[in-house]
Specification:
Largest sheet: 5 strands, antiparallel
Radius of gyration: 12 Å
Number of strands: 5
Helix content: 25-40%
Strand order of the largest sheet: 1-2-3-4-5
Distance between the termini: 24 Å
Order of helices and strands: EEEEEHH
């Protein structure tokens, strides 16, 4: 699972050959979530509300990069790192 970003203790990654819809995974503490890129909707999982807010803010700023990375991992290519939330 290639890590694409890390900020405030949150790790964001994508899996190679993952299922549609385009999404990414975020981990924080003991929680994990899967978030759809287009809608920024949580598809499954649970993390602390503050961490989830930071992930959504970061993702809204990086949708284009996330979609490009989705295409890369779907083709078994290494995704690009995305700048962390500042």
């Amino acid at each position: 699972m290639p890590e694409i970003s890390r900020f405030y203790g949150i790790i964001v990654a994508m899996f190679f050959d993952d299922h549609n819809p385009p999404h990414f995974h975020a981990r924080y503490g003991g929680g994990k979530v899967v978030i759809e890129i287009e809608s920024l909707k949580v598809l499954e999982g649970l993390i602390a509300p503050r961490a989830l807010g930071l992930v959504i803010e970061w993702a809204s700023q990086n949708k284009t990069h996330l979609l490009k990375n989705w295409e890369l991992v779907k083709n078994n290519q290494t995704p690009n790192k995305i700048e962390p939330l500042k």
